[in-house]
């Protein structure tokens, strides 16, 4: 499994700000590093987030909720999740409108991490090469 690096997430953030507007900058580097590392967490040698879909949800959730960037946290979290899935040969099959609705529910706390993960799981397909 391939994970996104700090540099890759910053590039995603900068791209989203350039495309759609907002302020550049990292508000809290520790929170950003924590969000990126969270999906690789283990306890006693056991992966706390064992499935790719749970890892994708954790990545987006952490980037969205930690507010590590000055602006564009939801966009960065969403695109980072999509890129993470893609580099691991999965595609999320949800319309942009529906994805925005889901991300807003995640950000507001209306959706649990588990519900978010289930939605990613049932709406993802393996990329056939």
From TrEMBL:
SUPFAM superfamilies: Fic-like. InterPro entries: Doc, Fido, Fido-like_dom_sf, Type_II_TA_Toxin. Residues 4-122 form the Fido domain. Coiled coil: none annotated. Pfam families: Fic (PF02661). GO terms for molecular function: kinase activity. NCBIfam families: DOC_P1. This is Fido domain-containing protein. It comes from Candidatus Woesebacteria bacterium RIFOXYB1_FULL_38_16. The lineage of its organism: Bacteria, Candidatus Woeseibacteriota.
């Amino acid at each position: 499994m391939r994970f996104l690096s700090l540099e890759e997430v910053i590039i995603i953030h900068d791209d989203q700000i350039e495309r759609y507007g907002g302020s550049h900058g990292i508000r809290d580097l520790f929170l950003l590093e924590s969000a990126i590392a969270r999906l690789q967490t283990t306890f006693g040698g056991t992966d706390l987030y064992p499935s790719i879909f749970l890892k994708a949800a954790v990545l987006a959730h952490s980037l969205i909720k930690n507010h590590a960037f000055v602006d564009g946290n939801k966009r960065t979290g969403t695109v980072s999740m999509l890129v993470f899935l893609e580099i691991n040969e999965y595609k999320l099959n949800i319309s942009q409108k529906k994805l925005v609705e889901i991300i807003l529910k995640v950000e507001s706390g209306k959706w649990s991490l588990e519900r978010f993960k289930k939605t990613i799981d049932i709406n993802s397909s393996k990329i056939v090469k």
